[in-house]
Structures are given as C-alpha cells and as structure tokens.
Amino acid sequence: MSGRRSGKRGGLFLNGLLTGSLAFRQIQLWLCQGIVMLIAIPAHEAAHAWASARLGDSTAKNAGRLTLDPRAHFDLFGALCMIFVGVGWAKPVGIDPRRFRRPKRDMALSAAAGPACNLLLAYLSMLIYKVLYYKAGSGSLWQLLFLLCYCMVALNINLAVFNLLPIPPWDGSRILWAVLPPRYYFGVMRYERYIFLAFFFLLMAGFLDGPLSIANSFVWGWLDKATLFVDKALWAPALGGAAL
C-alpha cells in the first residue's frame, strides 16, 4: 500500500460521510476539524513566537503568544472557517523587525516557522495515519481516529500552503520581503488592503481552488514519499506475509 492509496482511502471515507447518517457523520467531521484547529493553529502561532524570540525579538513572547493554549491565539471567525471550510487563522503574532539582528533574513525565518511547524505536524500525523491504515480495527472508534489523523494531515497541509502564499498579511508576504528590494516590497505593501480584498474575492469565488489543490496534492505526495518506510514495514505483514 502506498500513501496515495492511503489518501484514497481517507478520501473515500470522507465521501462516505455524505451518505447514510449524514448529520452524525458530518458532526464527526466537524468534531475532528475542531480538534485539529485547537492543535494546528496554536502550534503555528507559537512557532512564530518561538522563532522570533530566538532571533532577538521577544515582542510575541512578551505578549503571551509563546504558548499552545488556544485562548492566546483564538480568532472566532478564523476558528469557524477552520472547522467548516478547512482553512483558518488566528490573531496575528506581533513582530518588531527592528529588534532582529538581520531584519530581512530573520523576518523571513520567523514567518517560515509557522508553516514549517504545520508541515512537521502533518508528517507526524501521516506516520500515525499509515499505521492505523494497516493496524486499526473496524470499530467506530478506530474509524474516528483514522478520520482525525486524516484531518490532521490534510488541514496542516492546507495551513502551510495557504500561509505561504505571498499575499499580505500571510507569512508568504513576509518571506517575500527577504527576496524583493525594499522599494518594490514597500511599493507593493502600499496596496496591501486592496491585494487582500482581491485575493479574498478570488478565493471565495473558487478561482484559486485549482492552484491550491495542486499545491496541496504536491505536499501530500512529498509526505507520502517521506513516510514510505512505514508502507514497506507494514504492507506485507498486513497481508499475512513477512516484512519487506
């Protein structure tokens, strides 16, 4: 079994949520996405705060953002979007680039820490997801755990990809600062509000569904390959043979 087949099973399972007891199954999905929201978003924001503090700016740390407590990062609308749409956000982490030793580089590193944390969570969740694929029983509790791990992988990938878009105020725009000459960067940032509104319209209208889906699939495939050793170790035993 490959991670692609594992992803297919997860996708089929989610499609199955739309049949049978729709209300109960949909509540299960929302419950899992709510749990993921309470883990993925605080981890993302705490990673920003940790990286900034390590690089010399303790603004976020002093504001109490270096914590996994969801209450420190909670944004109601962003949390609801995470649960019901699959992509959300938290309160922005305050960063003062004047405190960095190398402002452009350190701003980019602190911005990249959030998506990197989500990719790490997705990787660890993919490991558990594959183990459950081979070893889990058929009971409802196992299926719920399988769904939870699938959501942990998928939603952390979504968060990482979404936040790496070079659109203000997301992390990708801060990373862009490290590669663009200041005059171009600040020239673009003058229109930050209009860029955000245009992007939000394109997102809500569905014009970005294709590119985001391609990016998510690429990251999923990369994680599949990075965890292929689980398939090699458990595939044959799951079929009753010897380990590969």
Short description:
With 244 residues, this protein is mainly alpha-helical.
Overall form? globular
- Largest sheet: number of strands, sense, barrel closure: none
Helical element count?
A: 11
**Percent helix among the residues?**
over 70%
Return residue spans where pLDDT drops below 50 for at least 5 consecutive residues.
1-6
Number of domains: 1
What fraction of residues sit in β-strands? under 5%
Distance from first to last alpha carbon: 12 Å
Encode the helix/strand succession as letters: HHHHHHHHHHH
Report the average pLDDT across residues: 84
What would you call the structural class?
Answer: mainly alpha
What Rg is obtained from the alpha carbons, in whole angstroms?
Answer: 20 Å
- The count of strands amounts to 0
Describe the structure.
By secondary structure, the chain is mainly alpha-helical. It has one domain. Helices cover 73% and strands 0% of the residues. The protein starts with a helix and ends in a 6-residue tail after the last helix.
Highlighted features:
244 residues, mainly alpha, 11 helices, 73% helix, globular, disordered N terminus
Topology of this protein?
Blueprint: H1 3-16, H2 22-54, H3 59-62, H4 76-84, H5 103-135, H6 140-163, H7 171-179, H8 182-189, H9 192-205, H10 209-226, H11 228-238
